Amino acid sequence: MFEGTANIGYNSTKKFYYYGFKGHFAVSQDGYVLGYVITKASIHDAKEAEELILSTRPEGHFILEPV
After folding, report:
1. Residue 53 lies in a domain
2. According to the model, what pLDDT value does residue 63 have?
3. In a domain, 36, yes or no
4. Residue 50's domain spans which residues?
5. Please, are residues 62 and 52 in contact by the beta-carbon 8 Å criterion?
6. Which string of DSSP letters, residue by residue, matches 17-28?
7. I want to staple 26 with a disulfide (CB 3.0 to 4.6 A). Which of 9, 35, 41, 47 is the partner?
8. What pLDDT sits at residue 20?
9. Is 48 helix (H, G, I), strand (E, B) or coil?
10. How many Cα atoms occupy the beta-carbon half-sphere of 24 within 13 Å?
11. What total of structural domains would you count in the chain?
12. Within-domain flag for 2
């Protein structure tokens, strides 16, 4: 169903491969979602973090990366 969109990613910390997507979210201190990006599993988290930081820059907001 997602062929051509989802793909294989690698978790270097846990040393395993996985197939699918990753979600990157910018949230407020209260937990409200301010912005998000859904990427292929192979896209590095740091690449998307910069985009979220630039698009949701007000003070008091944090970038959460998948674990």
Report:
1. yes
2. 57
3. yes
4. 7-64
5. no
6. EEEEEEEEEEEE
7. 35
8. 83
9. helix
10. 21
11. 1
12. no
